[in-house]
Amino acid sequence: MGKVMQEADRAARTGQHEASALVSARRGILRERGLPWGGVGFATVALLVFPVFTQALDWPYYLSLVTRAMILALAASALNLVLGYGGLVSFGHATYYGLGAYTVAVLAREGIRQAWVVWPAAVAVAALAALAIGAVSLRTRGLYFIMITLAFAQMVYYFVVSFKQYGGQDGLRAPRTDFGVSLGDVEVYYLAFGLLVVSLVVLWRIVHARFGRALQAVRDNEVRAATVGFPVYRIQLAAFVLSGALTGLAGALMAHHTQYVSPAMLSWPQSGHFLFMVILGGVGRFFAGVLGAGALVLIEELFHVVTVSWQLYVGLTLLAVVLLAPRGLAGLAEGRKR
Amino acid sequence: MSLLQVRGLSKRFGGVLALWRCDLDVQPGEVHALIGPNGAGKTTLVNLVSGLLAPTEGRIVFRGVDITGLPPHERALLGIARTFQVTNLFPQDTVLGNLSLVVQARTGSSFRFWRPVAQETFLEQEARSYARRVDLHGRLEVPVRALSHGEQRQLEVGLALAAEPRLVVLDEPTSGMGQEESRAVVELIQRLRGEVAILLVEHDMDVVFQVADRITVLVDGRVVASGPPEVVREDPEVHRAYLGHALEEARAPRASSRPRAQANASGPALLEVQGLEASYGTSQVLFGVDLRVPSGHVVTLLGRNGMGKTTTVRALAGLLRPKAGRVRFAGGEIQGQPPEVVASLGVALVPEGRQIFPNLTVRENLVAFARGNRAAGSPWTLDRVLELFPRLGARLNQLGSRLSGGEQQMLAIGRALMTNPRLLVLDEATEGLAPLVREEIWRALQRLNAEGLSVLLIDKYVERLTEFAHYHYILERGRVVWEGTSEALREDRELWRRYLSV
């Protein structure tokens, strides 16, 4: 390499502020369009002022609904890192979600409620589980990967259910952690909002950094990626652990929101729910998780109000989206812009 | 000391020995060609060197380091880069994106999670310089999908170069390329000579003899010769093994069983192909192929690798939808029909690589294909197939995967016959088989033809084919460049040199 590289390196160091960096970013090596600032700005402001209205109008139900949507958006965005950017269909993400939630509840049962202990512990437990499960699962491919992640998730599910002292099938109360101030519903709302924003920023940086690019290269052509020097297994495992950790964070948030955890959070329908959200939003689009979770919560709510057999109509809506908008909601939005 | 040393390397796939105790030495800066007939184990060897396969036994040493157990990415970082026989790129990305990914892979860790990669402008600048080296600097922003086949092949080489390797393994870099494009590859290899060592797997002997400093010949998984081109060219062992016993037979042709030469125009055509065009994605492979198989004749499709022979039969059998052209079979048009319809009309394909059902027994393989009696002639039964290939009788209850290559081939033919075809199409039915087994298969074909079956076949052993085939077509880069009788083919030695690389 020698000379070419030295020259290039020097050019890179001196020319970082030049337009070329901007140009290449705009051209999108990552095939990702720039942030849709309009939409993001509007959503941010709307979410920031939303509690003002709910409090004024005494609509606690809608505050709770949007809190839930934001938490699910975080979990689905975390799943999108492995599913969309990594091409790995994990059918077991409820495990990390549920473990994050259970960590909060179990620690509270044991008398530990300090926020600075509980939150890192919830993320760490989920990350460790993802490390162990990913280390084994990532040695398989395709259908086998789907099945093995599902199998691990079922194992964890039955493991948790077997702990009678922690509620077994009935679940467990999860009092909110202690931040020095007591957390009301509005505080939990802003906590969820803040963590969602921070997580999205982190995810945005990750997928646009060297790591994200390597992850997508592995997704697009694993053999070629390996033969040009990318450590495929370690890259996928790192993405899996990151995704698991963020999903665990979402779980801890949900425990705070509902103040109750149940084995259903660890169940395979929950994993399927997350997959649905990402697919609905548009696999591999940055805002797939946010759009998908938001839309699903909204759809469920609408049909729930109108009919008893709402699940049937939710299913039909999903079917329609998958058939009519194969690139998901994010894909629809892009299509309109073009 | 050698840059790459391969010692006693063997690879077994199930019951098949793909490579047997191979030695190979590549010196720094040399162009080392690896040649051999299809199925000789060239790609297996290349995959072992780049780490995509693990050897059954043996050692690989690169720059003094034993890399036998290293994963592919570590070998890449040590300096082994490769291209793939079938284009293997990052399809969603642009030319620039593909190249800068490779630059990223070798310039520091990919475990950086925060700084936008777009700020590392040197990645892109370096990528541009590699694009220039493979003549793609005008196509930087083009997505790989939109590149022509030739350009994709160039990018294949570009990706290998962008890794700044010590050794580049080029696996059939000219496959599917036009003459112009092939020449560009030759020039590129010439330019790289001395700068980086090249291990070149190539079927085009013109290319090999133009650029190689040394040649290693693989046959049936064994190295039969290795040395400078002049020496290898004259090596009798190479001639015998690589060219089959074709040359020996040429010296003592058997007068018996030679078919009466007939002009191909005579007799009603069972199969007639006109102006057949076909492509894989963006790369067109067939540019208007015309051929006909008269009823009761044996017709061959000859030519070097990558010239469109397999594509032609795939298009005939309905496995590939032709872009243009007509295919008439037994009076009806069949182009664009799905394969099951074509098969039910009486065209039976014995595909390249046999493709028997590995998890069914011999009996099940055969019975699965049995079709009820049809108007045409006496129907094929299990017993009749076993009579034709007695070896299969002893193996009736064995799984397909347990058979030897020759037995699998017989099974594939028997399976095709169970459909009671009117035309039997064979794609490289004797590929990778021992001479005796090859002979057994040819005799069976002769017998079938004597019983009235029409045959269209692709095969490399031209000399032997001229003993029983009626008519021949030679394909070159997707077109028929010659056609004629066995006599005409035997006499025109120039033809052999030019189109059949004999």
Description of the molecule:
The complex is a heterodimer of chains A (338) and B (502). Chain A is mainly alpha-helical and 338 residues long. Chain A is built from 15 helices and two strands. The longest helix of chain A is centred in the last third of the chain and has 27 residues, at 232-258. Chain A is globular and about 60 Å long. Mean pLDDT of chain A is 88; it is low at 1-32. Chain B has helices at 42-50, 72-78, 95-106, 121-133, 149-162, 179-192, 205-211, 229-234, 236-242, 246-251, 309-316, 339-345, 362-367, 382-388, 390-393, 405-417, 435-450, 462-465, 486-491, 493-499, and strands spanning 4-13, 16-26, 31-35, 57-62, 65-66, 80-82, 167-171, 197-201, 214-219, 222-227, 269-280, 283-294, 298-302, 324-329, 332-333, 347-350, 423-427, 454-458, 471-476, 479-485. Chain B is globular. Chain B is of the alpha/beta class and 502 residues long. Chains A and B meet through helix 1, helix 2, helix 8, helix 9 and helix 10 of A and helix 2, helix 3 and helix 4 of B.
For the biggest sheet of chain A, the summary is: 2 strands, antiparallel
Average residue pLDDT of chain A: 88
What is the percent of helical residues of chain B? 25-40%
E-strand count of chain B: 20
Kindly report the spatial arrangement of strands forming the biggest sheet of chain A: 1-2
The number of helices of chain B is: 20
Give a brief description.
The complex is a heterodimer of chains A (338) and B (502). By secondary structure, chain A is mainly α.
